[in-house]
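Ticket #4471: structure output looks truncated?

Reporter: J.K.
Steps to reproduce: submitted the chain below (130 residues) through the standard prediction queue, then opened the result file.
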Amino acid sequence: MPPPRPTTAALRSLRALTRSSKPTTPPPLTRLTPPPSTLQTRLSSSAHHDHEDHYDPPSGWLWGVPPGETYKKEGWEGIWIYGFFGSLILGAVAYAYKPDTSIQTWALEEARRRLEAEGILKDPSPDEKG
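Returned output as attached by the reporter:
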């Protein structure tokens, strides 16, 4: 079977596109960065602390406290410790009391209900006294 032939309207529009008299030019590029003067102003105002020394040399003591001195807590440490361990305890309690929503539990309950409905399994109701 031969390939399909293009229609005359499609050929006309294709010819019109290829014969256009104006050369196509790409749109002008937009600037992705701010002008250099603005950029240098931003860099010079925010980066004037970059040349300070960020390195604390090791003192040889654990957490920098020599023997015989007591560690002085900072203000945020107490609330952080209570918040962190309190949330861990709260999460453990919530996990212990969460409902069992597994598919195995549901299938076991559904099988038990169907067997009780068919009379194969006795109904374990508390009002039966033997």
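Triage note (M.O.): checked the attachment and the full token line is present. Residues 27 and 45 are 35 Å apart (CA to CA).
Status: closed, working as intended.
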